[in-house]
Write a structure and sequence with these properties.
- The complex is a heterodimer of chains A (about 180) and B (about 200).
- By secondary structure, chain A is mainly beta.
- Chain A has one helix spanning about 1-20, and strands at about 25, 30, 35-40, 45, 50-55, 60-65, 70-75, 80, 85-90, 90-95, 100, 105, 130, 135, 140-145, 150, 155, 160, 165, 170-175, 180.
- In chain A, the strands form 3 sheets. An 8-stranded mixed beta sheet of chain A has the order 2-5-8-11-14-17-20-21.
- Chain B is of the alpha/beta class.
- Chain B has a single domain, classed as Hexapeptide repeat proteins (UDP N-Acetylglucosamine Acyltransferase, domain 1), CATH 2.160.10.
- Chain B has helices at about 1-15, 20-40, 140-145, and strands at about 45, 50-55, 60, 65, 70-75, 80-85, 90-95, 100, 105, 110-115, 120, 125, 150, 155, 160-165, 170, 175, 180, 185, 190-195, 200-205.
- The chains are: A mainly beta (about 180), B alpha/beta (about 200).
- Chains A and B meet through loops of A and loops of B.
């Protein structure tokens, strides 16, 4: 019964975003088990065999918000998203086999730093976010603009990471995020 | 004799503040309903006497959940209080008089909170990584990522704080709002913990 509902929901979102709105694409074998909320002028791409699940505690869903026509949220194959929130105005890349908990990932500040320029539409300070193969993003953590996580890196729960590069296999946590354990603990 | 005295005191309290008495009655009735629902649906849940509930409480999973006497459950910050257990061996034990408002607990091994704890909309997870529903939890994975959570009595956790696996907190500690308590450390009694990751910044009086 649950599987039937999931298949129906997946088919509904596929038809909606891939064929009617034409702003996203899903690979074969992707299952959507929660609400998928997509807003904005940008595009998204979800690879094959992904799983989009509701939050661990059952009351959240996956949201993909784009704020610019050039924005792209590219998600690789076999990625698990659990109520992850994306806010993109440039590019967010999630590579294969990553697991993302209920975290916020955004690649822009969305406003200019100077107060008098904050209402201007064109803000040119975006930096893309890269989450490499096999990463794990913990609960309630945030990846701000310019974050780049190496292969197999672990972002601990409630960590906040900004313009930083995390080496492959490292474990980072805290605010601002710092190295908690070296590669391959 | 003593019981009659207590009843008399209750009666005076009710006459002084009938609205509060009504609220307490409401909570007790809801608590009774929730308790009987859990008795039918999930035999691993044990809830003590005088359980008060205002709104929903979500308990999922095959593990044991024990809530002590005089517990109170409310909704906080639009979050439903939620207790999750991932394996049949996992357990969540909340002491007597604990106060949950929008608290979310996820347990793979064990989460133990002492008595009279006040937990605001906190997230308590005893694992750094959360397994997928169909993932097999083997011993190696568990050794690497899962640490037990032990919290002493009179613990107070502020809003939006986070307690991760491996936290050992003494009695009468206070965790500030938005703080993140990461594992691997022991915190002495009566400490005021703040920041991300949380450090002891003073004494809680």
């Amino acid at each position: 019964m649950g599987r039937l509902l999931d298949n129906l929901r997946t088919a509904y979102y596929k038809i909606k975003f891939q064929y009617v709105l034409r702003n996203g694409s899903f690979g074969p074998g992707t299952v959507i088990r929660c609400r998928l909320e997509v807003k904005g002028p940008g595009r998204f791409r979800i690879g094959a065999g992904c799983r989009l699940e509701p939050g661990l505690f059952g009351d959240e869903h996956v949201t993909i918000y784009t704020h610019h026509p050039r924005a792209l949220v590219a998600i690789g194959d076999n990625v698990t998203l659990r109520a992850t929130r994306f806010g993109s105005s440039l590019r967010i890349t999630v590579e294969d086999d990553a697991v993302l908990e209920a975290a916020s990932i955004y690649d822009s500040d969305f406003h200019h730093l100077k107060a008098e320029m904050r209402n201007e539409a064109n803000y040119e300070g975006d930096r893309q976010v890269l989450i490499a193969r096999g990463c794990y993003i913990g609960l309630e953590s945030q990846c701000a603009k310019g974050a780049s996580l190496g292969e197999g890196a672990i972002l601990l729960p409630a960590a906040i990471i900004g313009t930083k590069a995390v080496p492959a296999g490292a474990m980072v946590g805290g605010n601002p995020a710092m190295l908690m354990a070296g590669p391959r603990i | 004799m003593g019981y009659a005295h207590l009843l008399e005191r209750r009666f005076i309290q009710v006459r002084r503040n009938p609205g509060r008495a009504l609220r307490v009655m409401h909570g007790l009735v809801w608590g009774l309903i929730l308790k009987s629902v859990f008795r039918v649906t999930n035999p691993n849940v044990k809830i003590g006497r005088q359980f008060r509930a205002y709104g929903r409480l979500r308990i999922r999973g095959p593990g044991r959940v024990i809530i002590g006497d005089r517990a109170c459950v409310t909704k906080g910050f639009l979050r439903t209080p939620c207790i999750l257990t991932h394996t049949p061996d996992s357990e969540v034990v909340l002491g007597d008089g604990c106060n949950l408002s929008g608290t979310r607990i996820s347990s793979i091994s064990s989460v133990v909170v002492g008595r009279d704890a006040v937990l605001a909309s906190t997230t308590i997870a005893d694992s750094l990584m959360i397994p997928a529903p169909d993932q097999e939890i083997d011993r190696q994975w568990q050794q690497r990522y899962v640490r037990k959570v032990r919290i002493g009595r009179h613990f107070w956790a502020g809003a939006n704080s986070f307690v991760a696996g491996g936290a050992e907190v003494g009695d009468e500690c206070v965790l500030g709002a938005g703080a993140v308590l990461l594992g691997g450390k022991e915190y002495p009694p009566c400490s005021l913990l703040m920041g991300n990751p949380a450090r002891r910044i003073g004494e809680a009086r």
